[in-house]
Structure formats: C-alpha cells, structure tokens
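Example for tutorial group B:
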C-alpha cells in the first residue's frame, strides 16, 4: 500500500497512487513497507534479459497488477523497436573497477525514457483497475528532455491526451525540433512566450485552478502530470540498479554480495532515490555518490544537513540538472526519519516559507552513511569530457561528465576502490556543442549548425548518431502554436475542442 510522506492521506493501492500522482495533503506517495530481494534472486537476474529483470523487481511494488499485466506493460515499454540496444540499459566497462550504465538508448536519447516509456502503460492499467471513465489529460511544462520523452511515451495511448508547453526562449534547437515534429493523434506541443518558469507557472496555475478543473471534468477530462514526483515514474528506475549489478555478476567483475558504488548525476533526486530504494531492498550498495553541477544545493545539504535554496539559479552546460528544489528528497527524508511525517511536514513548510531547513543529527548521520556528494563547474565538466575521451575513448555527455568529475573527487578524498558504476543519463549527441567543444579543445563551436555538429561529432568519434536525432532534419513540423502564459487555459480548451 502507498501512504503520504505528510501523513494525512488514506492508504492507496499502487494503481490509485499512480493515477493520482501526488497525495492530497501535498506530500509524495511512498510504499509503506519496502519489499526485499534476497541474494539468490539477485544472482538469478544475471542470466536474464532486461524485461525479465524488470518483471521481478516491479511485481514487488505492484501487488494489485497481475503478472500478465506487468509483463504486457514491460514488453510495450522496453522493446527493440523503441530501444537501439539489445540490452536496453547496457553496462559498459571502462576499466576493471569502473563501468558506465547507459540509460539513453530509448526513443528520445535521454534517461527520462526509462521511466516515461513504462509510466503510460502502468497508468492505462490503473485507469482500468479504478474504473476511471474520464479521459486523462497529461500537462507538462518542460525545459527540454521531459517533454519529448513524455510525448513519445504517451503517443497514441488510449484514454489519454498529452499537452506539452515549452519555453520559446530556453530549449536547444535539437530539443525544439524533437518536440515540434512529434507524431501521434493525441499529442499537442505549444511554445510559451518567456522562459521555463513562465511555462511552469502557467501549468501549475492550471492544476490549482478549481473552477477550470471542474469545467474540464464537466467535459469528461481529468488532469494528470507526468513529472518525477509520480510513483509510476520512480518505480521503473529501481530496475536498472539491479540490472547493472546483475551485469557485473555476469561479467565476473564482482561476486554475489560484494558491495558497489553508484555515481548519479542529480537534479530532482529521482534517479538517485531509485538507487536508495534498491539499497533498502537488499542490493549491496556501499555509497550512492550524488553529483551536482553549479546548482549545488544538494552537495551542501548532504555535507551539512542544511538545505538552503536561497541562492542564484545558474544556467549550466548540464541543463537537466539546473534545479534548486529537489522534490524527491522528501521521500528520502520520510524513510530516513523512520516514517516521521510530522518532521517531514515541518521541514517542507520551512522550505516553503523561508527557503531553508535543517535536519537533526540523526538524519544527518543517515545521510552521510548512504550518500557522498560533490559538484562540478562547467569548466570541470568540459575537462572531464576531454579527459574521459582521451583516456578511455568514451564520449560522455555533460551530465555524465559531471558524475565522472565527482567520482574522481571521491577517489581522491576517500581512496575507496569499491567497484563503481557511473550512471550515464544522456546521449552525447543530445548536447553536441558542449561535447564537440570539449573534445576539440575550443570554447565554442560557432561555425556549425546543430545538424552539422551531429555529423562532425560522429566523424570525430566514430560513434553512431542515434536514429531519432539523425532523421530529425527531414521530419515535417507538426506543432506551430505559440501563446502567452495567461492564454494557456484557453489553449488547453482549444486543443480539447471544448
Ligand atoms: C532529468 C535528468 C537528470 C536528473 O535526474 P533527476 O532524477 O532529476 O535527479 C540528469 N541528467 C539528464 C540528462 C536528465 O535528463
């Protein structure tokens, strides 16, 4: 069963938790008990493919879904028409102690696909299980990666429509083209005049507008969200931690029960939190190493126990981690404080009122037991891309490079040679200007456009351009709408034809 981190919500089934997305008391939904996987089960994962591994992990969190339903959802999400690698989430060895877990072989070349391919399948089943009659309208404000991954995930999914708002000034040309060429009869993409905050504020206002929601309901539409506070987006991410461990076992790099470290480029704390759940379930994880960019609010928190978002927002070369409020941290606080929803409520209220909170010494101790944290500047990021390429021939995107830099710091600081896995969250081709600049040693590559840059990066490294990016230039533009922030509700009406 699922409960709220803030304690004022009755218990929910997995299907209801996934349909609701968020608890009615403003908290996040969490499992009330953590299922366990013993070492013999973990060992048995080694001989299985990704789909079968996913089945074993997911069924523990979805007791109200049948095995057949889960298997169906998995085969629709993680198949070879959608992923360009047979292993789905391959583990690539760079040395005896270090491997890279590549999470970007899905349809949009970013790790959001790992969750957003499965969430629509789990949601569709949840609608059936709860006898929901309304059509679900997924509203997304995106700074780039989430919008496209959500569009691909929900494309042509029955009983759903998806509307994505992106800032007119604020996404890369590749990201824009990925969205405006989106196919599917239930998809809509709208540019909002302004920056990401304008788009995000507009979407939040729609969610909180009771009158507008009642108006939608009277036309049989129900709003929902695809962002990373939905449990249905978190649970698919637990799987690849087990899968990576199983691959190390299979390769004979570790023995069953041996501890490993994971290094995770972090923004909203969703990905690394999934690693924490894997650890709680029994996966032998020593440290979860939390890597941030210049928006290093988590680094400070994990070192001092003080969360302080009162600092300037920095635009960096790893934009998907440019975030000052890591929503999913609330789930960790809940578990680490022994399910103390009173404390969680106080901290979250303080954060909202003052922009700051401080945890007690017990929680700080737990933080340090589990996590190690550091951050990378843009210069560190570029230097890491160059170093990793020259030393290992590996082409890392800027988010992955942040993790790589932080891992080097971890080694220097601790000398801990536990086998480590760097979690790689985007294809380097998605951020080709930074990667080209780093590898060629130039600050900026001004003379080439986005598509020429794809080709140049491929020629330089010998890596193949992902098909979804290679074919982008030839796809027709299907979504041309632009609106001002205050027109967003009208645009929703127009799209829903009401
Ligand atoms: C979303 C994203 C992240 C951050 O993941 P969180 O779960 O928000 O911590 C890191 N890298 C890339 C490429 C992303 O798209």
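The residue assignment follows.
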């Amino acid at each position: 069963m699922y409960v709220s981190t803030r304690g004022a919500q009755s218990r929910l089934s997995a299907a209801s938790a996934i349909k609701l997305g968020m608890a009615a008391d403003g908290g996040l939904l969490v499992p009330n008990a953590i299922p366990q996987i013993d070492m013999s089960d973990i060992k048995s994962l080694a001989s299985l493919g990704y789909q079968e591994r996913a089945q074993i992990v997911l069924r523990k969190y979805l007791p109200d879904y049948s095995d057949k339903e889960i298997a169906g959802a998995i085969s629709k999400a993680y198949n070879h028409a959608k992923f360009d690698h047979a292993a789905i989430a391959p583990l690539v060895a760079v040395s005896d102690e270090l491997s890279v877990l590549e999470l970007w072989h899905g349809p949009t070349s970013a790790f959001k696909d790992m969750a957003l391919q499965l969430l629509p399948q789990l949601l569709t089943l949840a609608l059936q299980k709860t006898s929901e009659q309304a059509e679900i309208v997924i509203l997304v404000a995106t700074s780039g990666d989430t919008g496209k991954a959500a569009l691909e995930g929900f494309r042509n999914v029955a009983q759903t429509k998806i509307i994505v708002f992106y800032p007119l000034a604020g996404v890369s040309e590749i990201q824009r083209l990925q969205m405006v060429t989106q196919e599917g009869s239930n998809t809509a993409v709208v540019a909002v005049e302004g920056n990401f905050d304008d788009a995000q504020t507009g979407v939040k206002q729609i969610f909180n507008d009771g009158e507008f929601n009642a108006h939608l309901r009277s036309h049989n539409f129900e709003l929902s969200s695809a962002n990373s506070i939905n449990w249905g987006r978190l649970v698919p991410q637990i799987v690849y931690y087990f899968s990576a461990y199983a691959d190390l076992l299979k390769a004979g790099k570790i023995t069953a029960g041996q501890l490993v470290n994971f290094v995770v480029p972090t923004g909203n704390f969703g990905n690394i939190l999934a690693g924490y759940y894997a650890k709680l379930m029994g996966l032998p994880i020593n440290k979860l190493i939390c890597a941030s960019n210049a928006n290093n609010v988590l680094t400070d928190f994990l070192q001092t126990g003080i969360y302080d978002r009162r600092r300037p927002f920095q635009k960096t070369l790893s934009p998907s981690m440019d975030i000052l409020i890591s929503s999913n941290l609330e789930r960790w606080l809940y578990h680490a404080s022994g399910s103390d929803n009173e404390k969680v409520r106080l901290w979250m209220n303080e954060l909202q009122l003052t922009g700051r909170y401080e945890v007690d010494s017990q929680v700080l101790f737990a933080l340090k037991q589990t996590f190690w944290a550091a951050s990378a500047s843009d210069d560190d990021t570029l230097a890491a891309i160059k170093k990793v390429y020259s030393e290992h021939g590996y082409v890392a995107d800027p988010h992955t490079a942040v993790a790589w830099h932080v891992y080097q710091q971890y080694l220097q600081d601790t000398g801990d040679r536990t086998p480590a896995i760097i979690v790689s969250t985007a294809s380097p081709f998605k951020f080709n200007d930074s990667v080209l600049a780093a590898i060629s040693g130039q600050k900026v590559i001004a003379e080439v456009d986005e598509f020429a840059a794809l080709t140049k990066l491929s020629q330089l490294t010998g890596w193949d351009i992902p098909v979804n990016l290679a074919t982008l230039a030839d796809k027709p533009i299907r979504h041309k709408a632009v609106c001002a922030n205050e027109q967003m509700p009208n645009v929703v009406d127009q799209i829903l034809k009401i």
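Residues 110-112, 145, 228, 265-271, 320-321, 399, 425-426 surround pyridoxal-5'-phosphate (CB under 6 Å). Compare this with the pattern of hydrophobic and polar residues in the output above.
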